[in-house]
Design a protein that fits this description.
This protein is mainly beta. The protein has helices spanning 2-20, 265-268; strands spanning 23-32, 43-46, 52-54, 60-66, 71-75, 82-85, 92-97, 112-116, 125-133, 138-151, 158-174, 178-200, 204-226, 233-243, 251-253, 259-261, 276-285. 8% of the residues lie in helices and 55% in strands.
């Protein structure tokens, strides 16, 4: 009887001591090393297994452990186990696990992308992006942009036109979650100006109508992201430069020999031939 009472007191002492230990909260996520997709039900535990939690479907986990715990063990059937040494004041972990046997299903298999560029509406254009993956690293596609109400930023002129950008991409890194790429493009376009204003001495305006074909080259770097592991909803963003000159006269002559000029700065700064281009596309991959 005396031994039983002593044992109970000792157990209560251990529990009280454990409760008085300083605690820390550890959180993080566990992803597949190849696909970068979340892994569900991964066991995250302390070295002796006293403190254990499981990752959610999102791959995230969060639990509280004593500050004396300096090692976590990450395990999941079919994956190589991992031991993680905790660093003081670094309590948010980004962990990746390798499969014991490589699985082709971890690699991207979807091959076609169709996207819409919402920012082009600001300049009176409707633009779509198409992409077809040839293999894991290379793809080809096109941007098609129709200017239904294009605007000349420094004047009142409006125009219509069709611009096609045929591109190839080399993906420097690509998985089921995101990709980084370099892009090269060939540009072909047609524009129709019902009214194009030329100015003389900043006071006199002469208006003409014109239409022309033009073309050029472009290059960009960018990234794609599958939104929240949805598998099919994709965002594509890139920044680059292009060379596509305007093909209308910079200067025309009036009836009395006066020279009327049109400033093409708008064309190269935010216009169809903008030397610096930012593209944001939202769509689906299938």
């Amino acid at each position: 009887m005396k031994q039983a009472i002593t044992g109970i007191f000792f157990l209560v002492f251990l529990i009280s001591a454990a409760q008085e230990q300083p605690l820390k909260t550890i959180s993080g996520s566990v992803l597949n090393q190849v696909s970068y997709l979340a892994i569900d039900s991964v066991v995250v535990s302390s070295g002796d297994g006293t403190f254990t939690t499981l990752t959610k479907k999102s791959g995230n986990f969060r639990f509280t452990i004593p500050t004396t715990v300096d090692t976590l063990y990450i395990t999941h059937p079919g994956y190589q186990s991992k031991m993680v040494k905790l660093i003081p004041n670094h309590n948010n972990l980004k962990l990746k696990l390798h499969r014991i046997h490589p699985d082709a299903s971890d690699l991207p298999t979807l091959k076609n992308t169709v996207s819409f560029l919402p920012t082009k509406l600001v300049v009176g254009a409707f633009s779509m992006r198409f992409e077809r993956f040839v293999n894991l690293k290379y793809s080809a596609g096109a941007y098609l942009t129709y200017y239904y109400k294009g605007r000349e930023f420094f004047g009142s002129e409006q125009f219509t036109g069709l611009k096609t950008s045929l591109y190839v991409r080399r993906y420097l890194k690509r998985n089921k979650s995101y990709g980084f790429y370099a892009q090269a493009a060939v540009l072909v376009a047609y524009f129709d100006f019902g009214e194009l204003n030329y100015r003389y001495a900043d006071y006199y305006i002469k208006t003409v109508s014109t239409h022309f074909y033009t073309g050029g080259l472009g290059a960009a770097i960018g990234m794609t992201d599958i939104i929240n592991n949805t598998k099919h909803l994709i965002v594509d963003f890139n920044v680059g430069f292009q060379f596509m000159p305007h093909n209308y006269a910079r200067e025309i002559t009036g009836e009395h020999g006066e020279k009327y000029k049109h400033n093409p700065l708008w064309w190269y700064l935010g216009g169809p031939g903008s030397e610096i281009e930012l593209k944001l596309a939202i769509g689906g991959i299938f």
